[in-house]
Amino acid sequence: MMSNIKAVLYYEFIGLKKAVSGFWIILGVMMILSILLSFSMSDGVVYMSGTSLALALYMIVTGFITVKVSLPYCIRRGATRNQFLAGIGLSFFLTSMVMAAIHTIFLELGTFAGNLLNVKKIHFFRASDLISETPSIFASTVIDMFLFFFCLAAAFFIGAIFFRFARKAGYTFLAISPLFFLPNIQEKLIELTRSLVNGPEFANFFIIFIIGIVCFAATWPVIRNLSIHPSS
Amino acid sequence: MNVQFDHVTKTFGAHMALNRLSFTMKGPKIVGMLGRNGAGKTTALNMIAGCIFPNDGSIDVNGYPPATKQSSVCLINESGNFNKEFTVKDTVKSASLFYPNWDQKRADELISLFQLKRSKKVKSLSKGMESALGIIVGLASYSPVTIFDEPYIGLDAAFRSRFYDLLIEEFEREPRLFILSTHLIDEAAKLFEEIFIIHDGSLILHKDAETLREESFSVTGAKKDVMELNGKSPLHRKEFAGRTTAYVFGPEWNRHEAELHLLETSAIPIQELMVHLTNSHTGGRK
Asked: Which UniProt keywords apply (chain A) (predicted)?
């Protein structure tokens, strides 16, 4: 059981290692360009949200394609669907943690370089800025992690629906998915979205993380009896 | 090392891929699963590996349903076995973690034998080299049930011959249940101890190779003599230069009886036997 989970983790690690290194190189170059561009400004502060947005998008794409790329391989190599899910769950958790930590390091380095060059007109925006003007590094990293995990898990769930029921059924699911939620759950979700926009608290991001876990758990009934066809 | 199918049915939309398929494979053995395109072989093999679930019936691999305990099965498909972005080294390392009986030393030997570069990405390998990688993983996995479904697409004759030798070598070294599905039947026929022929999702023949060779032969002679002998309806009959050849199969045929009628007899290649048995227009009889 554990050896197959380890095997799934290794497979994910190798796959992500290559994609992630390219991603961070591009993002690093973009940050340097942002700092250089800020030299040309005479006044005001530029809020750069590019890194957070890019990371969230990266997580969504990664979560979505994991079902199509990793599931067929791991099942063919001998993992059961439960072992696959356990391995992917761990991999998502570690990925969101590591990516949030790297994000922190990148932004701290960017801010340090900005200070060194006496560029005070640039501020790298991240989700933790919503709860405080001066969030701690730890809080910023944890909030990023919660968000990244949510993006991975929600996209993984939607990817599983597309993989199992094909594209048409996937789009249909997306279109009618709001109807699945009971009215009081919908109300709570609207409240959560409002509080995230108006006065977010750390607890709100924790709820997002919990929703991510629920999405991940909801994937189990989708892939439990999923057939992997030779052409997959 | 047993695989058992009990009335397994699988449909894909309106198409019935397997129709109440039942058989038992008992290892250690090298068995051939043969049939025409679309017969249901790949579906059945993917079910053994737990990739595809049946609509009806049950499958048992070494005492368990395949999707609940899979490390005893290694399936190598015709293509798409590996992540194209991985290097050969990453692919082998990744596979080694899935199979508890993995032999890294053997994998290294096979990589050298097939002249694969470890640093090359799977997507940059030729079709034949990708097939070789599949063969390496299949053989080094030492899985009690190892399935090769058309494993050598793109491999040249020399490497295919090497693969057949390796299969025998590996079987002697560590006996297990090897299931080989191929369209190059004549090449691989010498390996099979048991043969399963699937047609339209059903098993139409299951015999050990020796019995099959004894019970199938061709009879050639004057048309009248052959027709007299063929009161029993052969699989196939053809005429050439005034002589008639009939392909016969089944325990009711006796090679000695044909020879007593001064008819020539000779073995039928398994490939030809399969072709005539699965002749869908005639239901296998002509």
From this structure: Membrane, Transmembrane, Transmembrane helix
